[in-house]
Specification:
Blueprint lengths: L1 E5 L4 H12 L3 E6 L14 E4 H5 L10 E4 L11 H19 L5 E5 L24 H20 L3 E6 L1 E3 L7 H10 L5 E2 L5 E2 L1 E3 H14 L5 E5 L5 E2 H12 L8 E2 L1 H16 L13 H8 L7 H7 L7 H16 L4
């Protein structure tokens, strides 16, 4: 198949291109002028710049399917204007170019569109109420995708992954957590009994490839995650065991105190003083991630595509820990 991929230099995009290339598909990647394509150079792929797409210099008739993965990453302090530019505006350009040409428009959204629902588990029937600008941007993009289907018949599938983790994700939540535990700088906020639900990169790539190359468009959206959640306490214990790290001082920070400190640090950043780099070491959204209880129901995607993730938390964490140990020359 002839496949167009946006966001190919990102974490998910790299792994998807690697998989598609090994299966012999013809791949074209949309990149920015300053994109680092070093890791992609091992694959026989063609490149177009974003300006080529914006200025309509590319005929989309040559492509069978489009994987739209490109997105500004969720980062504290990002303005709504930047989210609009990288999200809605670019997505609509791709949609307009795809009308009557692309046979399957696959959009990578996020479970962030649901926010933190009080009713668990969260399913596709849960009201979509984003809790931050990133989730709001993803929801606006989803609305554009469904609009272009309704108005122009553009076939699509929307995937909403939970936290995706794995190798080559230097800024990912799981990578950062493992590094903090290795450096003895991690402390649990709250009681640690809240749950999160993640998915290992290979499982996500499996379903991305399967939906794009083996199935017709469903014109529907699906949550993608591991089948079960995991308590923060159990996740930390699992990582400590893989790192062979004993607990030196098990301090649990009360949520109220973490939010108090986050408020102060955010205000300092808002006046232009960067204490710990380009973003706060702790912020309200980060506290939410550490204390909110989230569970997702993946029965819909299982029923539609027979989706059964094969990487347990134990297997995924083992793989990532040993990859990071090799990169950073840790002894584990």
């Amino acid at each position: 198949m002839n496949i167009l991929v946006t966001g190919g230099t990102g974490f998910v995009g790299y792994h998807l291109i690697k998989r598609l290339a090994t299966k012999g598909h013809k791949i074209t990647c949309v990149i920015r002028p300053d994109s680092n394509i070093e890791k992609l150079q091992q694959f026989n792929i063609k490149y177009y710049f974003i300006d080529d797409i914006i200025n309509k210099r590319i005929d989309f008739y040559q492509f069978d399917i489009l994987y739209h993965l490109a997105s500004i990453r969720h980062k504290w302090g990002t303005s709504w204007d930047k989210y609009i530019q990288s999200g809605q505006e670019f997505t609509e350009i791709l949609l307009k170019s795809s009308i009557g040409k692309i046979t399957h428009f696959i959009f990578c959204s996020s479970v962030a569109v649901y926010g933190y629902s009080e009713e668990l588990p969260i399913s596709e029937d849960t009201e979509r109420k984003p809790y931050n600008l990133y989730g709001k941007m993803k929801l606006e993009c989803e609305n554009l995708v469904t609009l272009y289907n309704e108005k122009y018949g553009l076939p699509y599938t929307i995937l909403r992954p939970s936290i995706v983790y794995g190798e080559n994700d230097q800024q990912g939540m799981m990578t950062r957590l493992i590094k903090m535990i290795h450096n003895n700088s991690y402390h649990t906020v709250g009681n640690g009994r809240n749950r999160i639900q993640c998915i290992y990169i290979e499982d996500f790539i499996n379903i991305l490839e399967k939906i794009g190359t083996n199935f017709h468009p469903t014109n529907d959206g699906f949550i993608v995650s591991y089948k079960y959640p995991i308590e923060i306490n159990n996740l930390v214990k699992l990582i400590r065991n893989e790192l062979q790290k004993k607990v030196i001082l098990d301090i649990k920070i009360p949520e109220w105190f973490a939010r108090f400190i986050a408020t102060i640090i955010e205000k300092i950043y808002q006046i232009g003083i960067e204490l710990t780099g380009p973003e706060p070491i702790i912020a309200q959204e980060k506290v939410d991630t550490m204390v909110k209880d989230v569970v997702y129901d993946i029965s819909k995607i299982d029923k539609e595509y027979d989706f059964k993730p094969i990487f347990s938390y134990e297997r995924g964490i083992n793989r990532l820990v040993h990859n990071l140990a090799q990169e950073n020359k840790w002894k584990v």
